[in-house]
Each structure stands twice: as C-alpha cells, then as structure tokens.
Amino acid sequence: MAEPVTPTIRTSAKAVVVHDGQVLLQRANWEGQDCYFLPGGGQNPGEPLDQNARREVHEETGLTVTVDKLLWLREYIGANHDHADTEAGTHRIEAIFHCTPEGDPGRLSGHAEDDVQTGLEWVELEKIPGLNLLPHALRQPIAALATGQPSSGYLGDVA
What we know:
- This protein has helices at 49-61, 84-87, 139-143; strands at residues 8-19, 22-30, 33-37, 40-42, 64-77, 90-102, 117-124, 153-157.
- It is mainly beta.
- Helix content is 14%, strand content 43%.
- Strands 1, 2, 3, 4, 5, 6, 7 and 8 form an eight-stranded mixed sheet that branches.
- It is globular, with a radius of gyration of 16 Å.
- It is built from three helices and eight strands; from the N terminus they run ββββαβαββαβ.
C-alpha cells in the first residue's frame, strides 16, 4: 500500500487586470489544450500578497498595475479533483485581486512568461463565460465584473 501523500501548501496571487470593459488574460497551451489563465504566480517568503500580484503581472505582461482590492480567495486541493492520482500532494491557496493598469495598457511585454504561455490578450468581460479560462470556477465571477456586481469572498476548493 502506498504511503499517503502529505500536501505542500503553496500560496499565490492572481490578478484580474481590468481596463475599458476588458480583462487581461494569458493565452496558453496546457496539457494539450488551448486555454487562458489570469496572470499571477507563487508568493515569495516575506512578500505581501498584493506585492506578489504586482510583481507577477509585471513579469508576465510588462504592465505595472495598481492593486485595488481583494476579490476572491480560492483553494485547490488536488486530491479532491480530476487528477487526484497525480496531484494528491497539491494544495494551492490563491488570492485573486482586482487591478488596474498604470500607463499604456497596450504595451505588453512580459520578460518572465510562464512556460505554457503563448501570448497575452485583452478580452471583453462578457466573453469570459465562453472561454476555456482555467480554473472554470472563475469564469462567472469575472464576467460579473461587467455589471459591477461580482460576488466576493471565499470561492472554496474549486477547479
């Protein structure tokens, strides 16, 4: 019998960068599928989550952003989802912030893109529900930003 896997908790920050009714997304090819992700990534020890979001957005997109507010807190506990056999040791906690770009939002030029990243794209908020945005649980809350009535708070353990 295999030993139980002790999950390692990884904290990160993601950014919902909004400008003129659009949100900035990373285009990616992940596990053979074309998809989208929010910019963001792992927190460094001693780094506040809002600074983590600013740093990751700058690295991945070239934009400097203002972190406006915390929108959602999301967990992902791998043992509870589709890839439990390979992700049993995964436990991520993500703080997802609403951000606005400083300067010209059209000047995109990340210098530390993720390996799976294939580009950057401004997408109309209303189109988000029809995209393969991962995790899928974020599509409706992000689309709700178009009406100014997003839910906020704890999203739970969602994929």
